[in-house]
Amino acid sequence: MVGLKRELILRLRVLRGVGLAPQDYYGGLREASSDPFCVIIVNGKEIGRTSTRTKTLNPTWADAASSFRFVTTHAARVRVCIRDWDVTKEDDPMGEVSFVVGDIEKERRGKSFSPNKWFNVVPTGDSPSLGKIQLGIMLDEHVPPPTKVVAPAGVRNLKLGPNADLAKASSASTPVFLHVYDVGHTQTIANLNRVGELTVGGVFHCAIQVYSKEYSFGGTKRNQSGIFASNPTKCPLHSYRESYYLGDCYLPKAQVTAILQGLIPRWKGNTYDIIRKNCCSFSDEFTIELGVGQLPSWTNRLAKIGAALQDTLRLESNAASEAIERFVADDPHYDVTSLLLEHVMAVRMQTAFRARKARRIHSATKSPR
């Protein structure tokens, strides 16, 4: 009983939700949606709220405003109550998830557990019970000691990401960086990216650094992991451009490794799609899992243009055509088709490079006859 009363410090991150229950209906087609936010309650007492995400049933939080640190006990029950924001303050319940702190600690004893866990939403009162919520849960005792954030070797022009807190950067325990490359090594791509970063977007390769390696995603023909590691800012297939400090994930190296291992089944190399499942979309997924928010929107904007273009060609729908118009600015410098072809060539080069590297590793480790 003594152990149950011992106080400890818990870090809780609300990362995202999937398939939540609709409470609102918009437009002539009565599109179902909600404006979800979460209320964190520990032993019946509210300790904080996340920000509101508008018109979505698949919200992503994973930012500083959705991270909570509080004193609790092993016996405490933590509730994450999902609500639909309403302008009249009559917020509708959308269900909740909950856990007992001690149960989570028992489940995750050991050095390699992932801090992230999915929970099924259960009803509260008359609320429906649709969807899942992903939470990041860890004890403060697992957090590495603070270390001064220093730009990794080779970084130039370090910038702040959209969710980074400059005031806390100097005491980060596990800093996370985004490294942005111009795809390939052609000056044309570099010039186009420089002109259109904040309008149409560009042809970028993205990688996420945590600890001493950067991680990204590329295509392979085999059913194997497409996630690969490189030395920071040194990917040989692309031209390094700039870096962003995204925030502090507070995670020890073993838990970062566990998160990466959990991503492998969903990020196989033969599932790579230049438009819909690429290095930028992987980087976005990885930063959500790390709890430091999403990437700047311009990093993957051109892929969204391509996706809308694909939808238009396949469906010939007015809705998809309007989607392209929302993404594409009236800029004579941009030729979407040629940019996508440049990206295709870079992906093919990357696949060939990784295949040769794998063969060399296999030859080096093969036992002599």
TrEMBL record:
The record's listing under PROSITE patterns reads:
C2, PPPDE
Keywords from the named record: Hydrolase, Protease
Q: Does the keyword Hydrolase apply?
A: yes
Residue ranges of every copy of the C2 domain listed in the record:
1-119
> Could you tell me the Gene Ontology terms of the biological process aspect for this record?
protein deubiquitination; proteolysis
Its domain of life? Eukaryota
Instruction: List the SMART domains.
Output: C2, DUF862
GO molecular-function terms, A-Z: deubiquitinase activity
Question: What positions does the domain PPPDE occupy?
Answer: 174-313
Family membership noted in the UniProt record: Belongs to the DeSI family.
Write down what this protein is called. Answer: C2 domain-containing protein
The scientific name of the source species is Chrysophaeum taylorii
